[in-house]
Design brief:
Layout lengths: L3 E8 L5 H12 L7 E7 L8 H6 L6 E5 L6 H10 L4 E5 L4 E2 L4 H9 L4 E5 L2 E2 L3 H13 L3 H12 L5 H15 L16 E2 L3 E5 H4 L10 H9 L4 H7 L3 E5 L5 E2 L20 E2 L1 H8 L2 H12 L7
Parallel strand pairs: 1-2, 1-4, 2-3, 6-10
Antiparallel strand pairs: 4-9, 5-12, 6-9, 7-8, 10-11
């Protein structure tokens, strides 16, 4: 058994294409460090319907864990924390693509620095609390019809029925005073490592605690809430850093300069996902909005 496990989430609901892209990038960009590949098969009931995946994996040594299709990405990750014995764990989601050789070597090297407890490929200062207040200020002076149109546009920005229902519920509960993001999310700058791709010691992750992940908002709270993974690890006296393809470990106050997430042309990005892809495809106005959401006055969109 290697010291490090690279744990990749394979979600049945996402189909085969993201997994094909992950494997192509994994084979094209060597990790640069010995490791075991562990695949988290999520939503494959009774280990069925893996024939297409089996064909893609022929000749590639790996281990599999099967988990139920609930709890978003984070619950399966922490199932792996309990089941695996590797000293260091690297997690990446189903939309991950590696862009640079030596990605694991560079992230693991950063973890060896004194006091570092969490290494991310991307991070953000974005805050649900500040974003909600900004949206309320933006909508507040508009005519009722236009305010309703913009609110509905926000609610349906992700057309998945579950996401529409959750955003509508959050708006409704907020409107009647039952939901206030400020109770659950710190204001900007809310430094958090994005959980699309991150590395930590297993003993550190084993101390992280969170409740049931029944809604997408619950997952957002674990990633960027007042008791997020990043904040819990900081409470242990450890630091989170980001690492890009330049190999430099960026401290929290310099994350905007890492140019890995929603900044400039993301030219230092080492590990891509669907959110970094969305920024890359966005027009100038949308890039400016995304960059400012992530970095405030330090935004540098292109």
């Amino acid at each position: 058994m290697a010291e490090i496990a690279v744990v990749h989430l394979v979600r049945r609901a996402n189909g085969l294409e993201p997994f094909e892209r992950f494997l192509a990038s994994y084979r094209s960009h060597p990790a640069g460090l010995d490791h075991d590949l562990v695949l988290l098969f999520k939503g494959f009931g009774f280990r069925r319907d893996t024939a297409s995946y089996d064909r893609l994996l022929e000749g590639l040594p790996h281990r599999r864990l099967y988990v139920a299709d609930h709890g978003f990405d984070l619950r399966p990750y922490f199932v792996a924390v309990r089941r695996l014995e590797h000293r260091v764990l690297f997690f990446c989601n189903s939309f991950t693509r590696f862009l640079h050789d030596g990605w694991l070597f560079l992230m693991h090297r950063a973890l060896q620095a004194p006091g570092v407890g969490l290494v991310g490929a991307t991070g953000s200062w974005q805050s649900f609390t500040s974003a909600n207040r900004a949206r309320a200020d933006e909508f507040g002076g508009l005519p009722l019809a236009e305010r309703a149109r913009r609110r509905w546009q926000h609610i349906t920005s992700d057309p998945a029925p579950r996401m529409v229902a959750q955003r509508f519920g959050a708006w409704l509960f907020g409107a009647i005073g039952l939901w206030d993001p400020a109770r659950h999310f710190p204001p900007f700058p809310n430094e958090h490592v994005r959980t699309n791709a991150f590395l930590a010691r297993r003993e550190t992750l084993a101390q992280v605690r969170f409740g049931p992940l029944l809604f997408k908002l619950s997952a957002f709270m674990v990633e960027s809430g007042r008791d997020s993974v990043t904040r819990q690890i900081r409470a242990m006296g450890l630091r989170p850093v980001l690492v890009g393809r330049d190999g430099k470990a960026y401290e929290m106050g310099d994350w905007d300069r890492s140019d890995t997430f929603r900044q400039a042309d993301q030219q230092n990005l080492m590990i891509a996902d669907n959110q970094t892809d969305a920024y890359a495809r966005a027009d100038a106005a949308q890039r400016a909005f995304l960059a400012r959401s992530a970095w405030g006055d330090r935004a540098r969109p292109q």
